[in-house]
Q: What sequence folds into this?
């Protein structure tokens, strides 16, 4: 199944959380932090939203940082994604 976001929405897939610390200790699943960097999987077309024109500045494959509690979590075909507004993305990572 393919996700096609609408308007100014962006579909993200987070990288896996670290399973070991820098010192080599294994982490329990409850101790793992939510990953901070996500990959852009799909980008909406933009358009006029609340009377203002929104142009999309992201592309599929970009690496980004978003707010910890931003977006809506969805699970499709066993994979987890987050759908956020473009304005919820804090930065691109090069």
A:
């Amino acid at each position: 199944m393919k996700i096609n976001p609408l308007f100014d929405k962006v579909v993200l897939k987070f990288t896996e959380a670290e399973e070991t610390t820098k010192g080599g200790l294994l982490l329990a699943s409850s101790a793992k932090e939510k990953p901070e960097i996500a990959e852009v999987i799909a980008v909406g077309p933009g358009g006029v939203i609340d009377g203002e024109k929104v142009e999309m500045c992201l592309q599929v494959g970009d690496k980004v940082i978003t707010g910890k509690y931003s977006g809506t979590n969805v699970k499709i075909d066993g994979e987890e994604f987050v759908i956020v507004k473009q304005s919820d993305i804090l930065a691109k990572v090069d």
The chain has a mean pLDDT of 85. The beta strands are 9-14, 37-43, 47-49, 52-54, 63-66, 72-76, 79-85, 89-93. Residues 7 and 46 are 5 Å apart (CA to CA).
